[in-house]
Amino acid sequence: MKQKTSSAFVAASWIALFIGVIGFNVGLWNAEMQLNEKGYYFTVLMYGLFAAVSVQKCVRDRLEGIMVTDIYYGLSWVSTLLTIILLIVGLWNATLLPSEKGFYAFAFLLSIFGAIAVQKNTRDNQAVKDATPEKDAEAA
């Protein structure tokens, strides 16, 4: 029997996602860098969020026996790793203070974690919701 995700974990996941994304973007907004550099980091963040959710979905689908093509599964992993590499390369070559580089790295990782957790919670709670009408029908 599937159990609904606790409200505390759902809230913590959304908070992690929002703090990571908002923190990263506030840092970009206030950064003294060219607009093309800001665009690079913003694109890496958005691509990373999408890629991480894709990996989570692929892994979950495979565990549940839902067909996922090997190419999409592989592309999801490659995309996730690529965003991490792109962020590392960008920060390595950036003329930022080490503390600023660390801020972007941790805001990025918090955002990725939050996106994965929110997607997992959403899927878990949908599975519980989908199973509930059967229970109600049996009781009637």
Automatic annotation (TrEMBL):
- What are the YiaAB two helix domain coordinates in residue numbering? 9-61, 72-124
Looking at the Swiss-Prot or TrEMBL record, what is one Pfam family this protein matches?
YiaAB
Q: Does the keyword Repressor apply?
A: no
Keyword 4Fe-4S among record annotations: no
Which stretch is the leader sequence?
none
Q: Where are the transmembrane segments?
A: 39-59, 71-91, 103-119
Entry keywords, A to Z: Membrane, Transmembrane, Transmembrane helix
> What InterPro entries does the entry give?
YiaA-like, YiaAB
The family database entries (NCBIfam families) matched by this protein are listed as: PRK11383.1 (NF008482)
Q: What is this protein called?
A: Inner membrane protein YiaA
Q: Which organism is it from?
A: Chitinophaga defluvii
Lineage in the entry? Bacteria, Pseudomonadati, Bacteroidota, Chitinophagia, Chitinophagales
